[in-house]
Amino acid sequence: MQPIRLLLADDQALVRAGFAMMLSVEEDIEVVGQVTNGQEAVDFAAANPVDVILMDVQMPVLDGIRATEQIVDAGWAKVIILTTFERDDYLFDAIRAGASGFLLKNADPDDLVSAVHAVAGGHALLAPEVTVRVIERFARQLDAEKAAVGAPVPAGPQPDPAQQKLLQSLTTREREVLELVATGLSNAEIAARMFVAEATVKTHVSNLLAKVQVRDRVQAVVFAYESGLILPGEGGRET
């Protein structure tokens, strides 16, 4: 099989070297390049085949969020955002820019390798514990945007009509799966909750992502809020 072609984008040489050392030992991962800022990442991805980019946020010339937006929009690679800062604005902006994953730089090496494999395989990486933060941040952002243009800010979130129309295209089962995805449950956990095989859940997830026109599970969480399927405070793992 073709190895996963990986690009490292970070302005700190020691960080790049550390990631390269950890990931190069994997037989199915090839570090094809290292760049020092977002613009170099954009230029490299435009000129070379890349599957996944590990992207720092704070970099000179062009930051990682804006670089991610350009790369994802062009379809050149999938992006995992890496940062030392556990901040909601980075997380939210990264998802809006199209990132498929978000990890802190102090993540365990095994988690980093797993993240690269997952994203390269078409999956998204959003830990359940941050799902609620994504939705609530999204709600605050929409209200702020409306206030900035002088539009009235409603007491609660107002579903997007276009998104609601897409939501109506789902079967009852697909809608149920989407609700569970939006709470941060894995396919295995959803299967256990619904008393079905995990393969059945995977089929439902694949179908619903196509119907609501989103790339991955991370975008599905945002869609679940936009469409009014779930409200801020309703997401997250039950205890």
From TrEMBL:
Protein name: Response regulator transcription factor
Domain HTH luxR-type: 163-228
Source species taxonomy: Bacteria, Bacillati, Actinomycetota, Actinomycetes, Micrococcales
Organism annotation: Arthrobacter pullicola
Domain Response regulatory: 5-120
PROSITE patterns linked: HTH_LUXR_1 (PS00622), HTH_LUXR_2 (PS50043), RESPONSE_REGULATORY (PS50110)
Domain of life (superkingdom): Bacteria
Sites of 4-aspartylphosphate modification: 56
SMART domains registered for this protein in UniProt: HTH_LUXR, REC
Ranges in coiled-coil conformation: none
Keywords: DNA-binding, Phosphoprotein, Transcription, Transcription regulation
